[in-house]
Structures are given as C-alpha cells and as structure tokens.
Write a structure and sequence with these properties.
The protein has 186 residues and is mostly helical. The chain has ten helices and no strands. The longest helix has 21 residues. The chain is globular and about 40 Å long.
C-alpha cells in the first residue's frame, strides 16, 4: 500500500470508528475468512474483480465498509434529519446487497441511521476515495462511482416528493450528492 493511501486509510478508519462506533473496530479486524470475502461482506460489493483489486491495494474490510456506506448516510442526513423511509431504504439496500443484518457493518450502519456521524467522516472519505481512485483505471473508476453514487441516489429518492408533484430528490440531497461526487473528479 502506498504511503498516501495508507495515510488516507488511517484517517478514514479513525473517522469511521468514533464514539459508539469504536466498539466495532475489533469485529471488523478479527475475521478468519478470506480478505476478499470479508471485503465483499463488509461492503455489499458483488463485483469480484473490483473486490480483488481493492484487496490488492491493501484495503481492509472496515475501510471498505466506510467507503461504501458513507455516501448513503451523508445523503440521508443532508437535510439535517433521517426520514423513516430513508432509514428503511438504507437498511434494505444493505441487506439486498448481502450485508448480513447480524454483521458489524449492518449494526454500525443502523446506529448511523439514528445518530449522524461526525463531519470529519466525509472529509476522510473524500481523501480516501481520491487516493484509491488514483490506483484504478478509467473503467474501474466508473464502475466504482456508479456503484457508490447509485446507492446514494436510491436513498435520496426513498423519501420521495410531495404526491409525485415535486422531485423525489431534495435540493439538500442533490447538493450532498454533488459534493460526494466531487471526490471522483478531484
């Protein structure tokens, strides 16, 4: 792992496991299963080539979980509160991608649907994404962005518009998605 990715990884790991979430660090780092399986389980990513590429870069399950869950949480909290439909969409999306409801990733995600993570998490996420994407080719970057931002858009659309008369995605959610998307273009 390059020094810059290692520094970004450490920053994201520290921001990810703050407060009540700190108790989850050991659960993520203590697995006995293959690294690829751990990364897939922690993130819900189903593209084996992408997961193997991340393993090759030295990405740990805890870091990848942060990488994939941060956009969902940030978009849902964009207007300052978590709507019940957004909470449901986040947890359903996590389960639909294979994230076991008994897993540390899922339990941490559930905490964040009630308690907004510290703003430093998004900043660390941006730094990490920029470093990791520097190791990807254009096709890998595109797949990675599509996967992460597609799930964030699904969460934004979950709260819906007013009787179908207004956009399903609020201004604050659009702004959050633009800020998150900037990490893929910086």
């Amino acid at each position: 792992m390059s020094q810059s990715i290692e520094n970004a990884d450490q920053g994201l790991d520290e921001a990810f496991f703050q407060g009540e979430a700190a108790g989850f660090r050991d659960l993520f780092q203590a697995g006995k299963l293959s690294e690829s399986w751990q990364l897939a389980e922690a993130s819900g990513l189903t593209d084996p080539a992408l997961v193997d590429r991340l393993v090759g870069l030295g990405i740990r399950p805890s870091t990848l979980a942060a990488l994939t869950l941060v956009p969902l949480i940030e978009v849902a909290w964009a207007d300052g509160h978590m709507d019940d439909r957004e909470r449901e969409a986040i947890l359903s999306a996590a389960e639909a991608t294979g994230l076991d409801p008994a897993s540390p990733s899922h339990r941490l995600l559930k905490i964040w649907t009630f308690e907004r993570p510290a703003p430093a998490l998004v900043s660390a996420w941006h730094d990490f994404v920029r470093e990791v994407l520097g190791e990807f080719d254009a096709e890998e970057r595109g797949r990675f962005e599509a996967r992460l931002m597609g799930r964030a858009r699904d969460v934004a659309e979950a709260a819906g518009g007013l009787l179908g008369l207004t956009s399903k995605v609020s201004r604050s959610e659009k702004a959050a998605m633009e800020r998150l998307g900037g990490a893929f273009r910086d």
